Amino acid sequence: MKLAIIGSSGSGKTTLAYAISQKTNIPVYSLDEICFTSMPNHRKIKEISKVEREQKLKAILKKDQWIIEGAYYGAWTHDCYTNADVTFCLACNKYKRAFRILSRYIKRTFGFYDGEHETLKHMLRVIMFNHKIDFIYQDFIREVESMSKKFVIIKDFNDAQQIFKSRDDIS
Asked: Which of 70, 112, 122, 134 could hold 107 in an S-S bridge, CB 3.0 to 4.6 Å?
């Protein structure tokens, strides 16, 4: 099984990816981890070169099973969506996303949550961008939908639970 999960920051992509992975034992790959690497102090993030990024993604796509989650779009990510058996689009409310982004920032800052540490400035930038993204994101969603074998919009985790209860191939 090959799954792609897209959505804005704070939409629940990583949470959903790991919930599916826990149930299916399919490995999860984050587009963030493909694009960036953390510096030794874990406070700075370094962008990976385009060539290295594309090589990493191609290696993942060759695997028999994967869950790829992220909010990146461009020619380099097209194969994620064309090769996925199902592409899930998480489309939750922008205020819920903002709350999740703030919550994640607090948890990371105080060490309650694994992951990259981010600055307050970065977190605020992500929230501001997130409030504007819904308009821009519509074109991205339409294009990904057009290239996907199966495209499913999920508005909340109740939707996700219903979808997974009704699908035999995700168990």
From this structure: 112
Taken as a whole, the chain contains a residue count of: 171
User: What is the token pair recorded at 55?
Assistant: 């090589």
d(C-alpha 2, C-alpha 14), whole Å:
15
Cα–Cα dist 76/53, whole Å: 9
Confidence of residue 145 (pLDDT cuts 50, 70, 90): confident
Residue 164: both structure tokens together: 């997974």
pTM: 0.79
The per-residue pLDDT for range 58-92, each reduced to its tens digit, is: 999 999 999 999 988 788 889 999 999 999 988 88
Q: CB–CB of 39/46 below 8 Å?
A: yes
Other beta carbons less than 10 A from residue 80's beta carbon = 28
**Beta carbons within 8 Å of 79's beta carbon, 6+ residues apart:** 57, 58, 61
